[in-house]
Amino acid sequence: MIMFVAMSMIPAGDLCGKLLTSSGAATPGFVAWSRFAIGTLLVAPFVPRRAYPLLLDRRLWLRAALLSGGIVSIQMALRTEPLANVFAAFFVGPIVSYVLSVFLLREPATLARSLLMALGFCGVLLVVRPGFGGSSNLIWAVMAGVFYGGFLTTSRWLSHLGSPLELSLTQLSISALLTLPLGLASLPTPSAEVAALTFGSAGFSMLGNLLLLFAYARAPASRLAPLVYFQLIAAVSLGWLVFDQWPDTLTWIGLAVVIGAGLTSARLRR
After folding, report:
1. Which residues belong to the signal peptide in this entry (predicted)?
2. 253-264 per-residue burial string, b: 16 or more CB within 10 A, e: under 16
3. pLDDT in tens, 168-218
4. Cβ proximity of 252 and 123 under 8 Å
5. Are 230 and 7 in contact (CB under 8 A)?
6. pLDDT at residue 261 is higher than 80
7. What is the pLDDT of residue 159?
8. Using CA atoms in the order 206, 212, 213, 216, what is the torsion angle rounded to 10 degrees?
9. What is the rounded CA–CA span in Å between residue 14 and residue 75?
10. Exposed end of the chain (fewer CB within 10 Å): N or C?
């Protein structure tokens, strides 16, 4: 149940960001920066002082830069594209992480999982359809997935440096600094609606990721991994409820392929 709530809150945060950017009330750069800045303020009181020297580690700056690129890119995609399509294209991230982990971290690879990763990539192509009637703006979602795949790989590489909460502080605060120029360059006109959506974007994302850490601390990763794909179901549902956007046939097929390949890969890993 914790995972289902977490996987619903993360798309809800991106929904708030989409409402801001698609209406022209704020830019993707501001949404990304405000999410990191507010997240830092929410987490900082609960992090011990021993975490702050980690901010001097250049490897953690690389990790935060990848996360920053991913969040800015996904907000660029959400400005014009349906929520479900963006999340489906974004799920190229686990595929990128798998490839990078095999080549850079020397993690074991099997033929079955490699073929499933390739199948999942074909599912992403069915959603994006580059050069075959798909939207060129979905390339931003693919870029977000590539950045996120790199972020996942560096997170595994650097997981020994601190606790999840300590590493959360470093990624949020460093990312807030990296995206500060984008945020300050395009401050929105203040209003109650902008404030509510800005805090909703940051709050839903922050709580979703904290619940994710809470769940992974209490159950094996192999058991929880399949539930990550509930994000796609939540994204389709929210897109339909708020924007009356329903995926077309090829997108449905692509979603099914991505989810099927991901669930089967998680089962093999388990």
Report:
1. none
2. ebbebbbebbbb
3. 899 999 999 999 999 999 899 999 999 999 999 999 988 887 787 777 667
4. no
5. yes
6. yes
7. 83
8. 180
9. 8
10. N
pLDDT in tens, 20-63: 999 999 999 999 999 999 999 988 998 998 899 999 999 999 99
Half-sphere exposure of 55 (CA within 13 A, CB side): 17
Are 16 and 204 contacting, i.e. CB atoms less than 8 angstroms apart?
Answer: yes
Q: Tokens 């399949």 appear where?
A: 226
- Three-state SS letters, 86-146: HHHHHCCHHHHHHHHHHHHCCCCCCHHHHHHHHHHHHHHHHHHCCCCCCCCCHHHHHHHHH
Tokens 């977490």, residue? 6
How many residues comprise the chain?
270
**Residue given tokens 């907000």 in the structure block:** 75
Q: What is the pLDDT of residues 150-165, one digit of tens each?
A: 988 888 888 889 888 8
Contact 219, 109 (CB under 8 A): no
DSSP 184-215: HTTPPPP-HHHHHHHHHHHHHHHHHHHHHHHH
Domain ranges in the chain?
2-269
The whole-model pTM stands at 0.87
Q: CA 153 to CA 129: how far, in whole Å? A: 27
